[in-house]
Amino acid sequence: MIQANYPGASQPGDFLLRAAGLPRSQRYRISYRLIVSLGLLLLTSCSHPAGNCVVLPYKDFGPQVLAWEHIGKEWWQWQAHGDSDPGKTYDVKVVVYRNIPLQEVQNNFPVIPVKQQDFRFIESDDALDYLQTMSAENIMPEVSKQLQTTKDKILAELTRQDKNPTARSNCVQLP
């Protein structure tokens, strides 16, 4: 740090407080309070859990007849209906997020029709509740198994992100 060597210079930024016409004792009191306040702000911001998310294909949430109430129809959301060809597939992704505002998630994963980029968004608790409920109903054993596998993948990835600070605030796309 460069030390000022002119009379009256004491700390970086002190000139601002001096310009405000405050006596030296008040300048130190304000500087101390400012440092303590910034330190507390930094500590409290670190104590909140970081947000994280997982991106999965629509099909991982089961057939459209089960999933549509939670994540929308399986076709592009900008279309009024799906293709007349029942074999047509759509590359719709579902973003399961936690501890992140929805608007931030939507900004990170924008829906862009010209690129056929379509995302659906569901909060992790809602996704896990849906997957648990539908897999427990056991309508079709293979569907229940798929839903349980999806639930396990989400839980495993969110747990991994919680344990690995470098993974926090990242969204991981799972196959």
Q: What can you see in these coordinates?
A:
By secondary structure, the protein is α/β, with parallel strands linked by helices. The chain folds into 2 domains: 34 residues; 122 residues, no CATH class. It is built from 6 helices and 4 strands; from the N terminus they run ααβαβαβααβ. Strands 3-2-1-4 form a 4-stranded mixed β-sheet, sandwiched between helices. Helix 5 packs antiparallel against helix 6. The protein starts with 13 loop residues before the first helix and ends with a strand.
Largest sheet: spatial strand order: 3-2-1-4
| N-to-C series of helices and strands | HHEHEHEHHE
The percentage of residues in β strands lies in 5-15%
**Biggest sheet architecture:** 4 strands, mixed
Give a quick summary of the entry.
The chain has 175 residues and is of the alpha/beta class. The protein has helices at 14-19, 24-47, 64-71, 102-108, 124-137, 141-163, and strands at 52-57, 92-98, 118-123, 171-173. The longest helix is centred in the N-terminal third of the chain and has 24 residues, at 24-47.
